[in-house]
Amino acid sequence: MTPSSSHVRTAGGLVLSVLSLTPAAHGIGFRLPNQDASAIARGNAFAATADNPSAIYYNPAGITQLEGTQVELGLTSYLGINTFYDSPGGNDTRSDFEVKPSPQVYVTYTPKDLPVSFGLGAYAPFGLGVEWPEDTGFRSIAIDANLKYITVNPVVAVKVLPTLSVAMGPTINYSQVAIYRGIARPNDAFNFRGEDFAYGFNAGILWQPLEKWSFGANYRSATTLDYSGHSDYNPGNPEVNIPSAATTASVPFPRIVSGGVSYRPTPKWNVEVNVDYTDWKSLKTVTLEGTSQLGFPIDLPLQFDWMGTWMYELGVTYKFDSGWFVSGGYFHISETIQTQYYTPAVPDSGLHVASAGFGYSEQHWSFAVAAQIIVGPDRDVVGSPTNPFSGESADGTYQIVIPTISFSVGYHF
Known about the structure:
The protein is mainly beta and 413 residues long. The protein has helices spanning 5-17, 37-41, 55-58; strands at 68-79, 82-86, 92-94, 99-110, 116-123, 127-131, 144-161, 164-181, 189-210, 213-220, 223-234, 245-253, 256-263, 269-278, 285-288, 300-303, 309-319, 324-333, 351-361, 365-381, 396-412. The strands form 2 sheets. It has a 14-stranded antiparallel β-barrel. A two-stranded antiparallel ribbon has the order 15-16.
């Protein structure tokens, strides 16, 4: 059977509510800044230090500091995107607990007596997701969203002067997106799944004019993912069968610019301050092309209108003569989503992030462990879009608490 006019009107509620369907991480859109345990332990303030293979991500110019062949394997686990919600009517709930792993692999090679270094990294610069119970009071706005995004990143770095290095390399990106939510009825369901490849580049510069001071900067280009897949709509009526629709969605991912200053008052101490900008302003309105085949009045437009996001990072490391080191760090993330476009599918907030860690390095082997706590203070949402058919909105108070644990192990051949 084909959808009735009432089903079309119900589907129209999704169009009129103009609600985001995006998968989410937290506070910084769906970017994942954590890419190495040593860097995480010092608040990701690493662009001007960049002295292990993860420099491929943080500042690829830093790999000129690495001798021979070095390999690093890492894993960061997000111990639940724990978002707590208090509705205006007093209904309290939280997102479902899930452990979200994010792996990293880095390899670098510097030939003897040559001012050139080569690197290859594989990591996840975007991703994660959030899942809500179906009794939150906003199931017609958000239930479950998931984003997987993997980047393979070869780089070449050149030491143009004894104190100055530059680097550049392409990024080959593969991504999958999956979205599940209701629209207007207690048991209806909308699904979209898609995938795509995209290409970009990253570049870096590292300058150490004085023994105690170094400066680093990194640029990551914008890319666009043209997701291709299919969407489904089940109106909750077993007598209504709506075939799947071929669906595409073009999603711009942001350019990222970061820079920092490292000060080493003695060989044992390293203090660094970084500033990082993610240009989410490029993400405006995304249209799910082809969803009108499901009986919707038009292809569904998804309004974002996100803001650019700033991160301010501070890290400190102390190295012992025995090869052990300890680090601590802090960074702050500004809000990404304006209140009038807020959606629980992206539990956004200004975040405070504290971290600490330790590690050990000797001639061949090294390892690091870092723990991190991400906290978003209460964010009161008032005046968010209301689904005119379900009457639901995202209004309420949200709080985010996300612990992470990270490990890395490296070997120098």
